[in-house]
Amino acid sequence: MHLLHPSATPEADLHGVQWLIIGLGNPGARYERTPHNVGYLALDALRGGAPLLPYPGVPVTACRASIDTVPVALLRSTTYMNESGQAVAPLAQALGLPPERVVVLHDELDLPTGTVRLRQGGAENGHNGLKSLSAELGSRDYVRVRMGISRPPKGTPVVDYVLGNLENTPELRTGIENAAEAARLVVGQGLARAQNEIHRR
């Protein structure tokens, strides 16, 4: 993947992109290293050192990149998780992109830490960020890159777990790398081939 330097005007920089790739999470240092923010971390792995800049009128920071010559927008939501749709839907509409051209990197309790699975559409399984996306987009047909964070230990409330400390384990690092690669493959080779590659890992 070749990252392009964003222009001084992020609005102009995103003109003509063909995909939105967004990492979900909660903004601010308090939440940076929490299980709920693995989508942010995968987005950061995908963008490398390219700076994220504000996009006027939309609660995101963004940069432009090229994946196999396809122009894409790499986004971090700057809303809290349960309002993630407010970061995606207005931008998708402004850029003329259907939900099928939106790739969402997000945490998944029902997968072991480090496991990555891809799918398009389907239920949100209680994930408030995905619920917001589906509501604001008016569709469930976006692509999900599901990043396993495992279930909390018995007796630990889910909210305390997903907003607690994220351990920097080898499994986590592998999952972040595979999630970034999954997004590249979806854009460059299509969802089916991306699933075939990533689901073997």
From TrEMBL:
The active site is at 36 (proton acceptor). GO terms for biological process: protein quality control for misfolded or incompletely synthesized proteins; rescue of stalled ribosome. One of its GO terms (molecular function) is peptidyl-tRNA hydrolase activity. It catalyses: an N-acyl-L-alpha-aminoacyl-tRNA + H2O = an N-acyl-L-amino acid + a tRNA + H(+). InterPro entries: Pept_tRNA_hydro, Pept_tRNA_hydro_sf. Its EC number is 3.1.1.29. It comes from the Bacteria. Keywords: Cytoplasm, Hydrolase, RNA-binding, tRNA-binding. The record marks 107 as: Stabilizes the basic form of H active site to accept a proton. It is found in: Cytoplasm. The record marks 26 as: Discriminates between blocked and unblocked aminoacyl-tRNA. TRNA binds at residues 31, 80, 82, 128. One of its GO terms (cellular component) is cytoplasm. Pfam families: Pept_tRNA_hydro. CDD domains: PTH. Its main location: cytoplasm. Belongs to the PTH family. Monomer. HAMAP family: Pept_tRNA_hydro_bact (MF_00083). Catalyzes the release of premature peptidyl moieties from peptidyl-tRNA molecules trapped in stalled 50S ribosomal subunits, and thus maintains levels of free tRNAs and 50S ribosomes. This is Peptidyl-tRNA hydrolase. It comes from Corynebacterium lowii.
